[in-house]
Amino acid sequence: MAMTYTKSQLDFFTKYQISLDEVFDASGMKLAQYKEEMAEGGFLVAIGVTPCTKEGHGVRNRHGKCVQCQPACLSYGKRYHQTASVYIAYSENAKLIKIGISSDIVDRFEQLNIHQYGGFKDWKVIYSVNCESAGSVENEVHNLLNEFHINGEYGKRNESCNELFKCKPQVAIKALKKIIQLK
């Protein structure tokens, strides 16, 4: 049976440039089930979900967040499948690794240092590779290095950093290369 959309949903999809090919029908499914199927199929949003409690919207991401209330959630979902550079940054002062993605590495590193990511401003690119599904690769590298994960904060903002790892640069580079080979 073909999916049916409300006018509100179609307007939202148009505004945020969401193709109907990126919409998953999660009717009758619980979050754990549609989360897995959306990840496997590369879907960005789901309909047929429990309406949100705030406004009654019916479009969620694969983590169950209402994207109509929180459209910023879309940027993370889109970056998961975009072609970009997955980079490894190193702070000599902190002896920390940061793994992330960017379509403009030069600008990204300027921002890391300006905002003092992890409380440090000496971040340098030590390795990067351009790849498809960059967000997916980044996530898999984070999972592979989970035992080295540490929490931190921006030096100039009251915001936490979630992409910091206390390991040798060679360990992070080896993990990234391993994930790239598996793709």
Describe the protein in words:
This protein has 183 residues and is an alpha+beta fold. It folds into two domains: 7-79, no CATH class; 82-182. 35% of the residues lie in helices and 22% in strands. The chain is built from six helices and seven strands; from the N terminus they run H-E-H-E-H-E-E-H-E-H-E-E-H. It has helices spanning 7-15, 31-41, 73-81, 105-114, 134-144, 169-182, and strands spanning 23-25, 45-47, 84-91, 96-102, 123-131, 149-153, 160-165. The strands form two sheets. It has a five-stranded antiparallel beta sheet with strand order 5-3-4-7-6, with helices on both faces. A two-stranded parallel ribbon has the order 1-2. Strand 6 (149-153) and strand 7 form a beta hairpin. Helix 3 crosses helix 5 (134-144) and helix 5 (134-144) packs across helix 6. The longest helix has 14 residues, at 169-182. The two termini are 33 Å apart. The relative contact order is 0.12.
With strands numbered from the N-terminus, the spatial order across the biggest sheet is 5-3-4-7-6
Task: Report the mean per-residue pLDDT as an integer.
Answer: 89
Content of β-strand: 15-25%
> What overall geometry do the principal axes of the alpha carbons give?
elongated
Helix content estimate? 25-40%
Number of domains: 2
C-alpha termini separation: 33 Å
The gyration radius over C-alpha positions equals: 18 Å
Report the strand count.
7
**Series of H and E elements:** HEHEHEEHEHEEH
| Tally of DSSP helical segments | 6
Sketch the major β-sheet: 5 strands, antiparallel
- The class by helix and strand makeup works out as alpha+beta
Low-confidence stretches: none
